[in-house]
Amino acid sequence: MEPALIWEWIIKSGLILGMMTAGFAYTTLYERKVLARMQVRVGPNRAGPFGLLQPVADAVKLIFKEELIPTNADKVIFILAPIITAIPALIITGVVPWGTAITLFGRVIPLHLADVNVAILYILSVTSISVYGITLAGWSSNNKYATLGGLRSTAQMISYELALGLSFVGPILIAGSMSLGDIVNAQRWVPFIVYQPIAALTFTLATIAEVNRAPFDMPEAEQELTAGYHTEYSGMKFALFFMAEYIKMIGVSMIGATVFLGGYLGPFVDQFPLLGPVYLTIKVAALLFIMIWLRATLPRIRYDRLMAFGWKILFPLALLNVILTAVVLVLRGG
Amino acid sequence: MSALIFFFTFALIAVGAAVGMLFSRNAIYAALLLIVNFASVAFLYLSLGAPFIALAQVTVYAGAIMVLFLFVIMLLGAERLPPSQELPWQRPLGIVLAFLLLIEAVYGIVFRVNSAATLSLPVVEFATPAEIGSALFSTYLLPFEITSVLLLVAVVGAIVLTRAEGGARRRALVSQITQAVATEVPEHKAETPEEEKELV
User: First-to-last CA distance in chain A?
Assistant: First the structure.
């Protein structure tokens, strides 16, 4: 293995981490701006031009906040939990391609970190790991509201993971591969949202539940659980949870854009490969807008309704879509 | 060389986590160490060129199954073991079995049983999702189908068990609530307006 390749991977990984963290900072600003406009307000506009330095100000504030660890909390797990939550969020997009390939310094550099043949499985396994941080945060806080919030969110995420996994099956069947690169290439003419509207719908709903966003933000239900699993967290540890939530939003938007909206594909992307990341960013921003829009519009649904919806409507719907897709593909002889 | 370093790093982590799990007095830590063990075994699968199996290991064992373990431990409040509650026959039996295993291992290493059989290198394509899928649905079709029927039985069983119990409890709850409603009319029914989630 040549050293240049290793350096390429290290630089790409650093780039992904940096982009996700910067993306987190500016997604918070984006969300606050959009929410403000929807509620006929102006939103943050004091720090810097158009409030562009607001994330920096927030970060400085969080760094200087006091860190509290509750008495009788399990210290090791209490400190580990935010880290366990943040890491899966940071690594989940490692398999998403941002473009075809560019030539830099006489080297052909493919615009993806890892185009593996089990990319979808990788995403699902990272999602299934990301449950732990929240559960452990709730449990280790030695606070019954936090514990309840953690358990609720675990149950919710496990339930919606099924629908999430099944909504990937339709696109996999059509593309005939679990590699996200192949899935994008299969959408060269028609994005999969056209062939797979049901899967796109179940994917959207399941991912909103998976990243704990409104209207499924049950783990942090303020009225009932005083903010759920992160009740006892403050300062940078709270910021890590916050960061994980927003990075997961960006991550699932990237995955959704890749699987259903054609990923980096767009006009002239073959002539100018650098357009690929631009198209992907635009699609991600559009999906993020939908998530924020849903939050501004819908009230939180009750916990039992949430579980009933996940198991009795979303899961059978996703299953039905798998059967329909398989039958149609077999009938077409594909 | 790098493959050896990789192997020994993750093998050490796996063994260390397993030993730590056995000696941990706290069930939560034991469960977490078991997750670490599963994850490092998954890395060993990766180094053997079997990404599908590695990721299935993480998804199913480290993800789904261990979450349920953790759930049960937390819900039952069984985090700490009671001080000591030894089974009297366990220790001698363990020593005898360990001794037998040791003898067998030493015999195997010293006398090199079956040393002629060397592993043949698998073809590169052996672990692709397509290969595994076709193997499951052709060679191993019967075990696969039996497993699925078993799982179906488990699902139906779980539903039957919870329904019988939940039905009785729900009836009791409903009668309680109807009594409570009959005695006093709730004055405040409106839900509190959705509060703006506090941003940093």
Answer: 39
